[in-house]
TrEMBL record:
Segments forming domain Toprim: 152-234
GO BP annotation list: DNA replication, synthesis of primer
Protein name: Toprim domain-containing protein
UniProt lineage: Bacteria, Bacillati, Actinomycetota, Actinomycetes, Propionibacteriales
Organism of provenance: Kribbella pittospori
GO CC, alphabetical: cytoplasm
PANTHER family: DNA PRIMASE
Disordered as annotated region, ranges: 334-360
InterPro entries noted in UniProt: DNA_primase_core_N_sf, DNAG_N, DnaG_primase, TOPRIM_DnaG_bac, TOPRIM_dom
Length: 360
């Protein structure tokens, strides 16, 4: 049985190896790719707190190095740093990849995410180990611990390159990425503990999938942060591509972020679009969206009621009545500590609205 302490030591040794490999290949594809995506030279040379590495495209570069460092094969296997071939040889798990560091709640390195030039396995994570699981680790929290503690705005993004793009906007922003999974409560708590602020911005990809993913994160984030905002990115862009093309537009999108509940309203209404020409469809759509309106700051509720009225073609009085009911239910749940236990106050993105095409 390999101890957690030894696994941490092996992971840290692997991180040092990957770090030096990137700096030793200034003309390699990894550095060229990172430069093309707008990554600054000071990050590529290791002059900042952001960690970047490179796994060489060899069969056993890391394995050979860690063996020389005194780590045995069982430690490399248990730590997800190597894998055994059918013939019993140990080879590197990560080969020919840009490497990002995954950290746990103590901001200790516990695993990696490797990015390849392309192909089916563009991203490869460390497998589950005694010290690493996707649901309890983040990319960027350790590298930006000082920013976060001094009041930088945490920005939750989908990809590791997106987190790096946010980081480069300046000290007022801290890009954080989950490790290839939807945000979990454990990850949200880790981020909140590292942050001085009680606000988080979600900046997912500027497409339908990104909007839906952001909306699904609302419940988890709202349980941990007092204010949850969403940045609207131009269609077809993620934070990384937008930073490479128009960094000012990325900054503007973050600066003008709106409540995530408003974006979630848009996502939910889009699901009801095909039944909004029926009275029952309109009412049910309003009832589905009302709990989201109830989450908004008081100063934004009236405008959203008016917008919803125009969208579904119902009187504002009807919508206000549903919103007031949702507000009352939410206050009751918060006062009794029951949270979001009733269906009406839960954002459910998994089922489709009923087919009302035959409604008279």
């Amino acid at each position: 049985m390999v101890s957690d302490e030894l696994l941490h030591q092996a992971t840290a040794a692997a991180a040092r190896f990957y770090w030096h490999q990137l700096r030793g290949r200034p003309n390699g594809w990894a550095v060229r790719h990172l430069r093309d995506r707008g990554v600054a030279d000071e990050i590529l040379t290791g002059a900042t707190s952001w960690w970047l590495g490179y796994a060489p495209d060899t069969w056993s570069g890391l394995v050979d190095h860690l063996r020389r460092e005194g780590f045995d094969d069982q430690t490399l296997l248990s730590g997800g740093l190597a894998r055994a071939t059918r013939s019993g040889y140990l080879i590197d798990r990560f080969r020919g990849r840009i490497m990002f560091l995954a950290e746990d709640g103590q901001q200790s390195p516990v695993g990696f995410i490797g990015r390849a030039p392309g192909g089916l396995l563009k991203y490869l994570n460390t497998p589950n180990t005694p010290i690493y699981t996707k649901a309890t680790t983040l990319v960027g929290v350790g590298a930006q611990r000082h920013r976060l503690s001094e009041g930088a705005m945490p920005v939750l993004v989908e990809g590791t390159m997106d987190a790096l793009a946010i980081h480069q906007l300046g000290d007022h922003w801290a890009g954080i990425s989950p490790c290839g999974t939807a945000i979990t409560r454990e990850q949200a708590v880790i981020l909140k503990q590292a942050s001085r602020l009680d606000t988080v911005v979600v900046a997912f990809d500027g497409n339908t999938a990104g909007a839906s993913g952001a909306a699904r994160s609302l419940d988890v984030l709202a349980d941990v942060f007092a204010v949850v905002l969403a940045a609207d990115l131009p269609g077809g862009h993620d934070p990384s591509s937008l930073f490479a093309a128009h960094p000012d537009r990325l900054h503007d999108a973050l600066t003008h972020a709106r409540p995530l509940a408003e974006l979630a309203m848009d996502v939910e209404l889009a699901r009801w679009e095909r039944v909004l020409d029926h009275a029952a469809g309109k009412v049910n759509a309003v009832r589905a969206v009302a709990p989201l309106v109830a989450r908004l700051p008081a100063g934004r509720v009236a405008a959203q009621i008016a917008r919803l009225s125009r969208r579904v073609d119902l009187e504002e009085q009807i919508i206000s009545r549903e919103v007031l009911a949702a507000v009352g239910l939410r206050r009751e749940q918060l006062s009794t500590g029951r949270g979001r236990t009733r269906r009406r106050d839960r954002l459910d993105m998994g089922s489709d609205p009923p087919d009302l095409s035959r409604t008279p």
